[in-house]
Write a structure and sequence with these properties.
Layout (H helix, E strand, L loop, with lengths): L2 H5 L2 E3 L6 E3 L3 E4 L6 H8 L8 E3 L3 E7 L6 E6 L2 E6 L6 H18 L1
Antiparallel strand pairs: 1-2, 2-3, 3-4, 5-6, 6-7
């Protein structure tokens, strides 16, 4: 990423790995948290998302969860999940993602 791109990144703390929202995509670098084992037991890898470009997103929803709140991201007609842990900055990330995605859609 160039220095100007780096300035346009919002980062959100998560026990499952930091999530970055840029001007054209969202990405997560997974941590070594044991919680991933529980998530993987309940959701296939195809239902999880760690990187998605804004041009692939069809819709966004926030799903409050008692342990794992998540942002639901619709791509190719399928809903995928970007999980957080309770106490993480999940809703703050969702608001920023929704705003940046809406702005992206208006420009492109």
């Amino acid at each position: 990423m160039s220095e100007s791109d780096e300035e346009n990144v919002d980062r959100f703390r998560s026990d499952l790995g930091e999530v970055a929202v840029t001007k054209n995509h969202v990405e997560r670098r997974r941590s070594e948290s044991d919680d991933w084992e529980n998530i993987d037991k309940n959701f296939s890898e195809q239902k999880l998302v760690d990187y998605v470009s804004f041009d692939e997103i069809e819709d966004l929803e926030f799903e409050e969860g008692s342990i794992y709140p998540n942002i639901r991201i619709k791509t190719d007609g399928e809903w995928k999940r970007l999980f957080f842990h309770v106490g993480d900055q999940a809703y703050e990330c969702f608001k920023t993602l929704r705003y940046r995605w809406s702005s992206y859609r208006q420009l492109y």
